[in-house]
């Protein structure tokens, strides 16, 4: 009767080989002798899936029976990374598969390279979503991640003469073995049209009369918990035309028209918007946001909840976590369903809706806060605009009661902005509707209260909280750094992988010379591994025994890659001018990784500058190899997994008050790199936990930045007064890095001298002095290693598991479903 529990294949080499060959033969339809690497990889992926399938179905059954409160994580981005290795460590199959494949003459490493990572995100926000769903699965907390299955993810970055050129991300072209399409659960999504009121048995109601619609097809992905028998679900939506092909039009000879609807519909989930801070306000982006939100809420209400579920109990059953404002249209969507479809009265619906959402803000840049013109929102989603107006009216009426006559406050707090054009402030809608609002690091959450949403923080002080970001130790230590994992497990046992605070037990070993020796051997091994990868991937060779100084993150002026370049150029200038003896400083490799949003000109300029500076510095004999710049293209999760474990120095140099949190900073500390950084985002909490002696702090503090700007910041004054800085800037301006062409990098130079919005020049001297402290510290090998070990031992707090417990305690009040 089909209720027999699904059993996984045998957890043994024989069991695996039998399953793998069956998949190769019957799944791929090839013999081992004739199988391509891709055939073997797809067969391997499907075999590993089978080991997870039983857990998946068991998890679903258990959660359904428990009717436990779940988390629905709504995110427009998921930067998942490759799936194979994560599945192997989650099922503890790595050794078995390695041996099984080897017995067939296959190298697991070769098949590993076949996998193209799903780049369904831009940067921090997308990767955080991936870490969070991993943690919830490992903690056995019921969670469904909802998002968009972009046909093309984040662009593939190539360099042409050092300049970024984008290529489409054809991640699906060789097959997608980790997804499960379920067209039978497709959801219709409507757009456009108008609204009309009608009499419904004496009650005046409103209905939406849409103009067009598409189908949302769900693709399920497994989110395996780490060795806990659990697998949660990530459901990504893909758009299809409701009427794929119009035969009449086709028969009338209008072949293109016949499929126009199909192309039009598919466009909605065609490609990820590559911006990670400045919304372009494109209509298609709003279509994408409403599309996946409408699919997700409909799916949860109609497919996940039991048929007879009373939606008045929804807040006890689900919390929709809004990953920034991108999914906030979910609020009026739920109201529309409850009022228009379920025919509840407004207050009844609002009472429930208010308890079902929580909002996480991930930015501090005013330009990154989304606002949608009412003209556009009203045209695409006329009923939702009406509902937003009603939410705003009721809210402002409440505020007016509390602050009678305070017109200015009403105008400041209105969800609808009147200037420059009438538009909806999505962050305000999220704050009004959300049960809780949180920032992603202590400093960020404080600035959110004081600077970004002060009126709301004053109005609802208890609504605002903080949950400092975290990263999953499964991917970013256990998977990415097997050598360090072994060393840690030797020292404190295997429990740290799911209880990262156990790392603290390693602290005394920082004083153990033999352990330090082994720790250095791990770092050296990881550097060799990186060198091998960069040679294979990009034809880049790393100089031996050099400090690896790494800056990897999206290219953005507030992150100040320019400050890093000025440091390199000033060192170079001092060497070639004879002021600095290249043999007196530790040899350094400056490794960069960074994509720029295609429309972000200055960011692309800075990428060009880094590569052109590298081309000169790397080949100038006067440098004697003391400075090397490497910039492997297409920085992504997979490259990070090899780059971060090899790093000695982590560059976290954003202007204080600009980086909401950062998560790369946490990954570096957990992999034994020391941080040079400002007191910004989560750097503050890293420094507080690892200790000032093991962190190279520099730069203006956030309040000082305010003062400098308020006092009128003149960057050129720093240029005139600081000789080293002036000579570095003059060298760039001279065209020395552009075959003498002064024009090429003129925009960067004049921006630094006349605008410098992110105070690069103001922080230059403090930064250079901190780098001198780094050089001195690195020469004390034992001291450096000791600090590196203490960074690892004291960074357990930065596990995304801890972040999840904070969300559970402060926002979600969902519990792990552990009952066997
Ligand atoms: C619509 C344009 C757009 C797209 C993405 C975003 C994201 C919020 C940008 C982002 O990724 N923010 C980063 O989020 C990380 C996770 O919380 C933080 O660690 C980073 O500091 C923050 O920059 C803003 C605006």
UniProtKB/TrEMBL annotation:
Keywords: Carbohydrate metabolism, Glycosyltransferase, Pyridoxal phosphate, Transferase. It is an enzyme of class 2 (transferase). SUPFAM superfamilies: UDP-Glycosyltransferase/glycogen phosphorylase. It catalyses: [(1->4)-alpha-D-glucosyl](n) + phosphate = [(1->4)-alpha-D-glucosyl](n-1) + alpha-D-glucose 1-phosphate. Belongs to the glycogen phosphorylase family. PANTHER family: GLYCOGEN PHOSPHORYLASE, GLYCOGEN PHOSPHORYLASE, LIVER FORM. Allosteric enzyme that catalyzes the rate-limiting step in glycogen catabolism, the phosphorolytic cleavage of glycogen to produce glucose-1-phosphate, and plays a central role in maintaining cellular and organismal glucose homeostasis. This is Alpha-1,4 glucan phosphorylase.
């Amino acid at each position: 009767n089909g209720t027999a529990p699904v059993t996984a294949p045998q957890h043994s080499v024989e069991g695996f080989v039998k399953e793998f060959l069956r998949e190769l033969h019957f799944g791929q339809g090839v013999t081992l002798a004739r199988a391509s690497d891709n055939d073997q990889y797809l067969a391997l992926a499907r075999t590993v899936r089978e080991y997870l399938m039983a857990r998946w179905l068991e998890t679903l059954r258990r959660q359904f029976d428990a009717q436990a409160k779940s988390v629905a994580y709504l995110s427009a981005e998921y930067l998942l990374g490759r799936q194979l290795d994560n599945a192997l460590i989650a099922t503890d199959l790595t050794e078995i598969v390695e041996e099984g494949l080897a017995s067939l003459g296959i190298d697991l490493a070769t098949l590993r390279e076949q996998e193209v990572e799903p780049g369904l995100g831009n940067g921090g926000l997308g990767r955080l979503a991936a870490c969070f769903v991993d943690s919830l699965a490992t903690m056995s907390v019921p969670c469904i991640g909802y998002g968009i299955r972009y046909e093309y993810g984040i662009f593939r970055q190539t360099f042409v003469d050092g300049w970024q050129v984008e290529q489409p991300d054809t991640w699906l072209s060789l097959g997608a073995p980790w997804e499960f399409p379920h067209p039978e659960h497709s959801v219709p999504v409507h757009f456009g049209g108008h609204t009309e009121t009608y009499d419904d048995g004496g009650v005046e109601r409103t209905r939406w009369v849409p103009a067009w619609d598409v189908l949302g097809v769900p693709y399920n992905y497994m989110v395996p918990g780490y060795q806990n028998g659990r697998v949660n679900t990530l459901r990504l939506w893909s758009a299809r035309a409701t009427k794929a092909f119009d035969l009449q039009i086709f028969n009338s000879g209008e072949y293109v028209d016949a499929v126009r609807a199909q192309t039009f519909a598919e466009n909605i989930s065609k490609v990820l918007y590559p911006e990670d801070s400045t919304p372009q306000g494109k209509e298609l982006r709003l279509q994408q946001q409403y599309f996946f939100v409408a699919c997700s809420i409909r799916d949860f209400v109609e497919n996940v909840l039991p048929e007879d579920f009373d939606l008045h109990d929804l807040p006890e059953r689900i919390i929709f976590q809004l990953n920034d404002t991108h999914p906030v249209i979910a609020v009026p969507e739920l109201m529309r369903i409850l009022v228009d479809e379920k025919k509840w009265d407004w207050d009844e619906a609002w009472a429930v809706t208010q308890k079902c959402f929580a909002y996480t803000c991930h930015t501090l840049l005013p330009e990154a806060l989304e606002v949608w013109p009412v003209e556009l929102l009203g045209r695409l989603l006329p009923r939702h605009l009406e509902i937003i107006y009603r939410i705003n009216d009721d809210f402002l009426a409440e505020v007016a009661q509390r602050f009678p006559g305070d017109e200015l406050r009403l105008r400041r707090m209105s969800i609808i902005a009147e200037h420059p054009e009438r538009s909806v402030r999505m962050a305000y809608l999220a704050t009004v509707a959300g049960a809780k609002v949180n920032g992603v690091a202590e400093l960020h959450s404080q600035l959110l209260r004081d600077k970004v949403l002060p009126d709301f923080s004053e109005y609802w002080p208890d609504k605002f909280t903080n949950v400092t970001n975290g990263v999953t130790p499964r991917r970013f230590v256990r998977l990415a750094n097997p050598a360090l994992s072994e060393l840690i497990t030797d020292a404190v046992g295997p429990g740290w992988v799911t209880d990262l605070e156990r790392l603290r037990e390693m602290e005394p070993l920082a004083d153990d010379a033999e352990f330090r020796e082994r720790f250095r051997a791990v770092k050296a091994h990881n550097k060799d591994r990186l060198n091998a990868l960069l040679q294979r991937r990009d034809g880049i060779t790393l100089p031996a025994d050099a400090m690896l100084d790494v800056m990897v993150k999206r290219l953005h002026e507030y992150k100040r890659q320019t400050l890093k370049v000025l440091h390199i150029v000033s060192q170079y200038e001092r060497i070639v001018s004879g002021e600095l003896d290249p043999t007196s400083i530790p040899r350094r490799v400056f490794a960069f990784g960074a994509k720029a949003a295609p429309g972000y000109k200055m960011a692309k300029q800075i990428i060009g500058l880094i590569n052109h500076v590298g081309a000169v510095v790397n080949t100038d004999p006067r440098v004697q190899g003391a400075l090397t710049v490497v910039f492997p293209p297409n920085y992504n999760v997979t490259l990070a997994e090899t780059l971060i474990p090899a790093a000695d120095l982590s560059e976290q140099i954003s202007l204080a008050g600009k980086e909401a949190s950062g998560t790369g900073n946490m990954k570096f500390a957990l992999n034994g790199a020391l941080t040079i950084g400002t007191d910004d985002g989560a750097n503050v909490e890293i420094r507080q936990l690892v200790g000032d002696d093991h962190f190279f702090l520099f730069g203006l503090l956030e309040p000082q930045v305010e003062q400098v700007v308020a006092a009128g910041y003149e960057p050129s004054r720093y240029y005139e007064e600081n000789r080293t800085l002036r000579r570095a800037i003059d060298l760039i301006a001279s065209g020395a890095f552009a075959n003498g062409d002064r024009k090429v990098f003129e925009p960067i130079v004049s921006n630094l001298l006349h605008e410098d919005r992110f105070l690069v020049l103001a922080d230059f001297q403090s930064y250079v002095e901190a780098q001198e402290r780094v050089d001195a510290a690195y020469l004390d090998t034992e001291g450096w290693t000791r600090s590196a070990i203490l960074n690892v031992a004291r960074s357990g707090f930065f596990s995304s598991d801890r972040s999840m417990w904070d969300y559970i305690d402060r926002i979600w009040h969902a519990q792990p479903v552990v009952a066997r």
